[in-house]
Specification:
Layout: H1 2-20, H2 25-43, H3 49-52, E1 56-59, E2 62-68, E3 71-81, E4 83-89, E5 92-102, E6 106-114, E7 117-121, E8 126-135, E9 138-141, E10 151-160, E11 163-167
Parallel strand pairs: 1-3, 2-4, 3-5, 4-6, 5-7, 6-10, 7-11, 8-10, 9-11
């Protein structure tokens, strides 16, 4: 979870330094985005990255992953899920937690999406505490609160020129 803060902090520091010393950080980032979009147009592929990836079912009690220029689709199954960390840069993904049971009353997940998106699906009986920030992007909690709060999910992180969506 400290790595999420590190990546977000590093991005913000680089952005600040680029303004201070007239370093073309934003220009480089924009150039990479335009190149990526050009490759996507030339390939003729209009499906989102997450739709092209087969969903893999994984049995683990926590998840950690970093995806750069790629995507993922994971369905986790666990009897004692503890949380995890996910980072996407110029990619996207889908994390399905509907098949997990929490190991504690509070589960914490950190997510960072830079020029990409992450969709997190949670069980219907979990309540969500979203502590994320969108920087030219969105960090959305679209869950329906349960009638009886059993498990508390805390989602922390950032969406920089991208999006994070939590649904149930």
């Amino acid at each position: 979870m400290k790595s999420m803060r590190f990546i977000t902090g590093l991005f913000i520091i680089l952005l600040g330094l680029s303004f201070l010393f007239d370093f073309p950080f934003l220009k480089i980032l924009l150039a990479l985005l335009i190149i990526w979009l050009g490759i996507k147009v030339l390939s003729g592929d209009d499906k989102p990255i997450a739709e092209k990836i087969d969903t893999s079912v994984i049995r683990e009690d926590s998840t950690r992953s970093v995806h750069v220029f790629s995507g993922f689709s994971r369905k986790l199954e666990s009897e004692a899920f503890r949380g995890g960390e996910i980072v996407t840069v110029l990619g996207g993904g889908d994390l399905d937690l509907t098949g997990v049971k929490a190991g504690t009353k509070t589960v914490e997940i950190s997510v960072v999406a830079v020029l990409g998106s992450i969709k997190v699906r949670i069980p219907k009986d979990w309540s969500v505490s979203s502590e994320g920030v969108g920087i030219l992007g969105g960090f959305e909690n679209e869950t329906v609160p349960p009638a009886k709060r059993i498990i508390q999910l805390r989602i922390k992180g950032a969406a920089v020129l991208g999006g994070v969506t939590i649904t149930n």
